[in-house]
Amino acid sequence: MGLLREFRAFAMKGNIIDLAVAVIIGAAFGKIITALVDNILMPVIGSFIGSSFATLSTTVHGVEIKYGLFLQAALDFIIVAFVLFLVIRTMNNMKKKKIEAIPEVSSTDKLLMQIRDSINNNKDNIPKPGTGNSQSI
């Protein structure tokens, strides 16, 4: 039973759940990009070269090499990488705006922080009442 409880605790950690959601969304996103490339971009590009990328192939020593499918997969990758770059870039810009939005500490607050630090640093030097170490004024 200890192994089952340990596995359950592991599986229910927030990071694992976030990762699972990211993988599922990533797989769905990949399908959307593949559909975009296969059904929209490749036919348009194929119209310029005169045939579909999927049919591009050559024969070497009796073996058919389908380099068109490779080109299509490479274009899929480039598009996915570019879109992810744009998403991450946008997120980083949003973080920068949040950091820039933090107001600067006012001069009054700086003085109060210096006073606080000075008091904290001098606590050991302040005589305690009733210890006989106090000086009369």
Model description:
With 137 residues, the chain is mainly α. Helix content is 69%, strand content 4%. It is built from four helices and two strands. The chain has helices spanning 2-11, 14-49, 67-100, 107-121, and strands at residues 58-60, 63-65. Strands 1-2 form a two-stranded antiparallel ribbon. Strand 1 and strand 2 form a beta hairpin. The N and C termini lie far apart (73 Å). The model has no long low-confidence stretch (mean pLDDT 80).
Shape: elongated
Structural class by secondary-structure content = mainly alpha
Tell me the span between the first and last alpha carbons. Answer: 73 Å
Number of strands: 2
Beta percentage is under 5%
Number of helices: 4
CA radius of gyration is: 33 Å
SSE pattern: HHEEHH
Sheet with most strands: strand arrangement: 1-2
Secondary-structure blueprint:
Layout: H1 2-11, H2 14-49, E1 58-60, E2 63-65, H3 67-100, H4 107-121
Antiparallel strand pairs: 1-2
In short:
The protein is mainly α and 137 residues long. The protein is built from 4 helices and 2 strands. The longest helix has 36 residues, at 14-49.
List keywords for this structure.
single chain; 137 residues; mainly alpha; two-stranded antiparallel sheet; 4 helices; 2 strands; 69% helix; elongated
